[in-house]
Amino acid sequence: MPERSSGVGLRSERGPVLLSQMLATGLVALDSTIIATASTSIAKDLGHFQQLPWLFSVYLLAQAVVVPIYGRLADVVGRKNTLLFGIALFLLGSILCGAAWSMPVLIGARVIQGLGAGAVLPVSMTITADLYTLEERAKVQGYLASVWAIASVVGPTLGGVFAQLGIWRWIFWINIPLGAVAVFMLWRSYHEKRASAEREPIDYLGAVLLAGGTTLLLLGLLEGGQAWAWGSALGVGIFVLAAALIAAFVYVELRVKHPIFSLALLKRRVVAASTVASLMIGVVVLGLSTYVPIYAQNVLGFGALIAGLALAALTIGWPAAASQAGRLYLRWGFRVTSVIGSLLVVLGAGLTLMLREHSSIWLVALFCFIIGCGMGFTAVPSLIAAQSSAEYHERGAVTGTNMFARSMGSAIGVAIFGAVVNSRVTLTAAGVPEGPGLANAMHLVYTAIFVVALVLLVSVLFLPGHRRREIEQTDTGAAVTA
Question: Which residues are CB-contacts of 276 (< 8 A; sequence separation ≥ 6)?
C-alpha cells in the first residue's frame, strides 16, 4: 500500500500522482460532456436517429460490466497496471469512433471505449482513497472537481463547435493527446507498494452472465415498439431471457468464492445506501445529458452551441458543489450533506416539469444548474462514506460497486428514456424528430427524472450521520487494519 505523506496539492510530494489522476479523470469528464451536443449532427451524418440512444447505452453498459472486474483487478494485480490498461483501451476506442463510417460501426467502437473507461474513474478514486486521509480527500475533491468544472464548460462548447463546423469526429480524436499525457504521468509518477497477497481468480462467468442479461434488457427496451411489437413473442422472449440470465448471475455471485460483484458488501447499510444513491444519480445525469441538448435543438430551435451551453450548466453545478462538499460532510456528516444535495435534485427535477415548447433556454440552464449542484453535494459524500467503511483490500471492490451502480443506472435510464422518446416521436425527411411529439416525450422524461430524484432522497436518509471525529476514527481504523 502506498504510504500517505503530508501535503495536498500539485507541488506536494504526491502532486505528480494527483496530476496524473486529474488527467485520467479529464478523459472521462470530457467524453461525458462533449458528445451530447453533437449527437444530432452525428445522426444527420450517419443516419439512424432512433439508434442514437445506443451510443450512450452500449458505452455505459460496457463500462458498467467491467467496473467490478477492474475493481477486483485493482485489488489483485495493482492499481497502476489496471488503470494504464484501461486508458490504453479507451484511447483505442476513441480512435475507432472517430474513424466510424456508419452508426453500427460507431456503436461498436463506443463499446471498446466504454470497456476502457470502466477502469478510469473507479481506479482513480481508489488511488485517491489510498493516498489521502479523509480530511485530505476533502481538499483533493477540489482539484478533481476543477477537472469536471473545466470539462463542463469546454466539453459542451467544443462539441457544439465541432458539430456546427461539421467535424464531429474530433470529439473523439481530441482524447488522444490528453490520454497520452495521462499515461506518461501515471507511469512516471505513481510507484505502487502493494501488500503481498494471493492472486484471487476473476469471476468471468459472473461477468458473462451480467453482460448477457443487461444487454438483452437494453435491447428489449430500445428496440421494443420499433423493430418488434412489445407484446410479440420475440419482445416478451427477450425480457424473459434477460431476467433468467440476471437471476443466474445473482445465483452465481452468491456461491462463487470470489464474486465479481460482492453481494455481501450490500449487507452493510452504508454501502447499500451509497449504491442505490449512485444508481439513481446515473439515471438522472445521463437522462438529462442525453435529452436536454436534443430538446434545446429540436424543440426550442437552438443550435448545437447554445444547446451545449445549456447542458454546461448541469456539469458546472456538479463540480462547483463537489468542491465544497468535503467541508460540509466533515462538519455536518455524510447524511446531512447528501440530503441537502438530494433536495436540490428534487427541486430542479420538479422545475423541469414546467418546461414547454416555447420555454426560455435560460430556464433550462437554471434548472440543470440546480440539479447539478444537488448531484455534487450527493455523489461525493455518499461514495466517500462507503469507501471509509472499507479496509484497504476491499476499497477497490467498494468503489467499483458504487461506479458499477452509477453506470448501470445511466445505461438503463437512457434505454428507458429512449424507448419513451422513440414511441412518441416521428422523424422528418432529414431523419430528425419533429418538435411537438418530442416535446410531449420530453415531459414524460422529466416526470420520470422527478420520480427518480425522490428515490434518491429516500436512499441517502440511510447513510451514516457521523460527525467529523467519528468519520476520522472510522477512516483511520480502516487504514490501520489495511
Answer: 405, 455, 459
Same domain, 268 and 216: no
CA 179-43-408 angle, to 5 degrees, is 60
Is position 1 within any domain? no
Assess whether 285 and 304 both reside in one domain: yes
In this prediction, residue 194 carries a pLDDT of: 58
> Whose grid coordinates read 460507431?
106
| Same structural domain, 125 and 223 | no
Q: Is 427 helix (H, G, I), strand (E, B) or coil?
A: strand
**H or E segment to which residue 304 belongs:** helix 304-332
Q: 464531429: which residue's cell?
A: 168
Cell digits of residue 209: 452472465
pTM for this entry: 0.70
Please check whether residue 432 is in contact with residue 44, taking contact to mean a CB–CB distance below 8 angstroms: yes
Query: At a CB cut-off of 8 Å and minimum separation 6, what does 58 contact?
Result: 107, 110, 111, 114, 218
CB 43 within 8 A of CB 299: no
Beta bridge partners of 228: 224
Q: Which domain holds residue 293?
A: 15-193+258-481
The answer to whether residues 302 and 431 belong to one domain is yes
pLDDT of res. 478: 38
Partners of 433 in beta bridges: 427
The domain tally of the chain equals 2
Can you give the CATH number for the domain in which 294 is found?
1.20.1250.20
Among the candidates 257, 272, 289, a domain finishes at 257
User: Of the spans 208-222, 361-375, 458-472, which averages the highest pLDDT?
Assistant: 361-375
Please answer whether residues 422 and 332 qualify as being in contact, where contact means their C-beta atoms are separated by less than 8 angstroms.
Answer: no
pLDDT attached to residue 479: 34
- The lowest-confidence range among 170-184, 193-207, 316-330, 363-377 is 193-207
Q: Are residues 26 and 105 in the same domain?
A: yes
| Residue found by looking up cell 440546480 in the block | 370
224 three-class SS: strand
Q: Contact 367/450 with Cβ under 8 angstroms?
A: no
**Angle in degrees, CA 333, 479, 4, rounded to 5:** 100
Residue 4 lies in a domain: no
Are 2 and 130 within 8 A, CB to CB? yes
Please name which of 401, 404, 406 lies closest in space to residue 379, comparing C-alpha atoms: 406
Residue 481 has pLDDT above 50, yes or no: no
* 68 lies in the same domain as 104: yes
Q: Is residue 36 part of a domain?
A: yes
Residue 57 lies in a domain: yes
Q: Are 152 and 316 in contact (CB under 8 A)?
A: yes
Are 187 and 219 found together in one domain?
A: no
> Is residue 23 within 8 Å of 178, Cβ to Cβ?
yes
Closest CA to 400 of 290, 288, 266, 267: 266
What is the DSSP secondary structure assignment for residue 463, as one 8-state letter? S
Are both 158 and 246 inside the same structural domain?
no
Question: What is the C-alpha to C-alpha distance for residues 282 and 376, in angstroms, rounded to an integer?
Answer: 13
